[in-house]
Amino acid sequence: MRTRLAASLALGALGAGLLTGVGSLAFADDLVEHDTVDVWFEVPDEKALTMTVAANEAELTEGASADPTQRVFTGTLPTVTVTDTRDAEDIPAGVGWAVLAGATDFQGDAGQADIPANQLGWTPSLIAGEDLGLVSAGGVVASRLDDTGSDGIAADASPELLAMALDSGAAAEEQNGVWQATAALVLKTDAIVEPGKYTSELTLSLFE
Quick one: pLDDT band at residue 169, thresholds 50, 70, 90? Predict the structure, then answer.
């Protein structure tokens, strides 16, 4: 690539020199002959494993609670898309990828006490790509208030799995593809909680 581009630039410099060197010559009005030169370069197709998220926020809205000691807020994680366009030789044998997440405590906009991130849970699911059988959704992560031993989606705990792909000896063309995942979000709080807006930052990370 660099060689071709350098040659093109050199050609342009040579042309400028020719025009300068003959500036004192007189030209006839009639065109004798002309020709053209294509100057070009090529941008290579980047082969990579990448992740995108459809939006940068998710709203939780309050719903009915079966437990009078708790309040329940639910929402949906924006669609997460993982794209793998790598060549077969660039994919290590037996190595897959995983999307993991952790969340910060919910902070109030008016000085309310924080709501711990481990009170946020989720249920991951695949939207597209499951027909290949190489990608699976993570397991259910319960809110700490469910008293199941789970620690929710806390940033200072073990990262929670949204989706993962495993190399099962599939052909390279099957390893490549586009997969989408989301998760049903649920936040459980005590029945008595200070009013106001609360915000947490949920970080999604793609690992190979």
Answer: low
Tens-place pLDDT, residues 79-89:
999 998 888 77
Per DSSP, the residues of the chain read -HHHHHHHHHHHHHHHHHHHHTTTS---SS------------PPPPP-EEEEES-S----EEE--SSTTEEEEEEEPPPEEEEE---GGGS-TT--EEEEEEEPPBEETTSPPPB-GGGEEEEEEEEE-GGGSSEEEPPPB--GGG-SS--TTBTTSPPEEEEEE---S--HHHH-EEEEEEEEEEEEEESS---S-EE--EEEEEE-
Residue 7: per-residue pLDDT: 27
